[in-house]
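Justification of resources, computational component.

The compute hours requested in this renewal are based largely on the per-chain cost of generating structure records like the one below. Each record pairs the submitted sequence with a full structure-token output. That output is archived, and it is also reused by downstream analysis tasks.
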Amino acid sequence: MNILDKFRQTTNYNLHQFFVDHTYFLDNYLHSLISYFKGESTLNKNAYKELLRLYGESIKIEEVISLCKANLSSTTEFWDLVDDLSLIKTKLETYVNLPKWMRSSYVYGYDGQSKFKYIMKQSQTVEGISYEMGSQDPNQDWVEVALSNSLMEADYTKEGGNVLDVMQTDNTAFNITSVVDVMVGDNILGKDWQQKIQITAEDIVSLGTVDTMEQSAEICLTTVRGSVPEFMDLGISKNFVGSNKNSLRFPSLVREVLGNFNTDDSFKSVELVNNGIEQDVAFYEFKIVSRLNNEVNKTL
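The structure output for this chain reads:
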């Protein structure tokens, strides 16, 4: 009697059929879901229903194991089986969240485009926006941007500030890998926990997109080398902290700050706009711009 037969004898649950159904889903249904969330096909309803059914079964299996664990084998073979079931459940959770992992968006159907609010910069043209969004022919495609926003040439000036609804033509070109979410609106900025973790109503307090951007900017600006165990070379040098004002090297500091921001691709640009010394304290003011043109000034 193999481990699957023993499991069924003890719990009355047919794990063999679950493995068969999971394999069939991978071979016959998964590709159609990936194609749908990329905007390349219509939804295969049977594939989606089967995914939800399998995910529900994986949760049920966990409950069965928890209830019957005293009667189940404690051999290595059994724990290997539990590991395999846990891995399958994790993969099914990933498939349920495919639109987030693939950074697709939904407006009357999924596709591979990011959709968000865009703030026009000073002296920026609609053609320039079209080019920035990945257009291969911005001199023609700007018309779509203008029409979708009912924008006339008289509606915008060199001062900028117009808020437009735009689409990034290719999310892979946009290359935002630090955010896992459906790419609609300011989701592109990401969501995070508070840096100082707090728990309210039995849940971890999370930040909205704008607050996440502010916190991410603060973290990138103040991370000191050696403070992140996984990346010991990341951060500004400790030599800058508490050093003599005559030994400060502005170019080196700016380069290391930029290195921090390069790890978070939800930011578009970082610029040192002011620096100086007040009494015995040196300060550096940076202008930080997100992919959505949100601006924030931070002082180090």
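The radius of gyration is 26 Å. The beta strands are 105-106, 110-111, 114-119, 163-168, 199-200, 203-204, 267-278, 281-290, 295-299.
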